[in-house]
Amino acid sequence: MEQSFIFLKPDAVRRGLCGEIIERFERAGLVVTAMRLMQLTEEQADKFYPNDKEWLTMLTKKVKEAFAARGESFDKDELAHGKQVKAYLVKYVTSGPVLAVMLEGNDAIKITRKLIGSTDAAASAPGTIRGDYGNDSVYMATKEKRANMNLIHAAGDEKEAKAQIKMIFG
How many domains does the chain have? Predict the structure, then answer.
């Protein structure tokens, strides 16, 4: 059995979507093995998002894709902009309580990521959590100089899941 880690971000908590979202994971056969409503500190939030160049520039590449889909260009330094987006993310996930959840099941990480959908809710497929409940986009978040409010964070791989589970649940 594999363990995965997610947290429902402040927008999901504020909108009262926690029960519906958790139910989706349970219906997919994953088991909730730990859950904690909490307020992340800036230090904790900073640890959830990598500081490496690859991850930071990937953030800007997603912005470029969102702008290109609208026929616009986005010509900012990828690393500098990625660092700014990370700062927005930290501010966003510390703006209210989050619901941290440890999930367990066969291929838990892969299934979790599939259920969540694309980082950009506007581009997420119907039937995914972000596709069904998301009401924001990378494009608008960038235009408004803030984080993309996309409801949920999920560990991307087993190493990340283990580190995040340890950070929150010990």
Answer: 1
